[in-house]
Amino acid sequence: MPTNRTFTMIKPDAIVDGFTGPIIEQIEAAGFRIVAMKKVHLSMEEAGKFYEVHQERPFYGELCEHMSSNPIIPMVLEKENAIEEFRILIGATDPAKAAEGTIRKQFARSIGSNAIHGSDSDANAAIEGAFFFTPTELK
Ligand code: ADP
Ligand code: MG
């Protein structure tokens, strides 16, 4: 995956709360092209595998339960400087600390149910994108 790509998921809380449309609209308005997108319902095991790096953190169980509670919408996005630009667009992990206008500030419920994921590095974006999409789907 080239370095102008990032990976995101709209999380169950935001989908249940009816924010899928507004979130996608803001992503596109910010200049990101949607390379691949689908809706999937992860099992507890699949959510656990995706968030394996966090398995020692105290919130791991809660995180996996939330991410498997209802469907999610994973996407691969493309834009110049995608990783950094997208982290700015979504805001801080805790919506209470997220800047005005960010996606988490507007649509997240809490630090655990925080509406959207954004990759933190090119390497992780490639791994995370490959978790959900085939190489052909990412062409
Ligand atoms: P980010 O998603 O901003 O990169 P992290 O990678 O640190 O944040 O954490 C992954 C996800 O775990 C967060 O998006 C959030 O859903 C959850 N999480 C992080 N910290 C907490 C916490 N203190 N309590 C509950 N859930 C948390
Ligand atoms: Mg992270």
Describe the structure.
There is one protein chain. Strands 2-3-1-4 form a 4-stranded antiparallel sheet, with helices on both faces. It is built from 7 helices and 4 strands. The mean pLDDT is 97. By secondary structure, the chain is α+β, with helices and mostly antiparallel strands. Helix 3 crosses helix 4. It has one domain: Alpha-Beta Plaits, CATH 3.30.70.141. The longest helix has 11 residues.
List its traits.
binds adenosine-5'-diphosphate, alpha+beta, 139 residues, 4 strands, binds magnesium ion, four-stranded antiparallel beta sheet
Please outline what is shown here.
With 139 residues, this protein is an alpha+beta fold. It has helices spanning 12-16, 20-29, 44-50, 60-67, 82-90, 103-107, 122-132; strands at residues 5-10, 33-37, 73-78, 116-118. It binds adenosine-5'-diphosphate (ADP) and magnesium ion.
Mean pLDDT: 97
CATH fold field value: Alpha-Beta Plaits
Given as residue ranges, the uncertain stretches (5+ residues, pLDDT < 50) are none
Total number of strands? 4
- What's the name of the CATH homologous superfamily? Nucleoside diphosphate kinase-like domain
Query: Structurally, how many domains make up the residues?
Result: 1
Task: Give the helix/strand layout.
Elements lengths: L4 E6 L1 H5 L3 H10 L3 E5 L6 H7 L9 H8 L5 E6 L3 H9 L12 H5 L8 E3 L3 H11 L7
Antiparallel strand pairs: 1-3, 1-4, 2-3
Helix pairs in contact: 3-4
The structure holds adenosine-5'-diphosphate and magnesium ion.
